Amino acid sequence: xxxxxxxxxxxxxxxxxxxxxxxxxxxxxxxxxxxxxxxxxxxxxxxxxxxxxxxxxxxxxxxxxxxxxxxxxxxxxxxxxxxxxxxxxxxxxxxxxxxxxxxxxxxxxxxxxxxxxxxxxxxxxxxxxxxxxxxxxxxxxxxxxxxxxxxxxxxxxxxxxxxxxxxxxxxxxxxxxxxxxxxxxxxxxxxxxxxxxxxxxxxxxxxxxxxx
Length: 212
Description:
This protein is mostly beta strands. It has helices spanning 3-20, 70-73; strands at 41-46, 59-63, 89-90, 104-109, 115-120, 123-124, 128-138, 150-155, 160-163, 181-192, 208-211.
């Protein structure tokens, strides 16, 4: 029979009305805290230098900007250590050969195991253009396609996000990279646009930007 159910529903309704009409409040005052993070840092260890190898005629010169062995970078500990061709010059606009130029090397410092975004500009003037291209050491989950740490291409084509080395990436040995750091190696293509003056030093500047 339904009457009992009806009486129960009405009784609950009265109970709810009684509670909702009761005033009972408390006000608490609580603190918050915040601490600023360490600024991201960028240090130039070596500057990009094509040396005294550029022809005065129109042409291109490519400087290889790859990094030293995996061991020095503390990346891919399970993989063979491979030394790459830092400083090699090639192209129609320069003397070709190994170790003729100097690749740029830059250390990024920040917070342990934290993502940073790397971007850079190119150079263009009446005499030449320069398009930077190189690699950086990336660590941990910043490399989703590879559970190991690895080299990642960087260039003026667009920003790249990488993770600094964490405690697990630092074996305690003094190498190029320790915890809170990553390293960028840059070369690039120097394109001579018009005849240059013999025995004259040419230079330019480009921006390398690192942000959290």
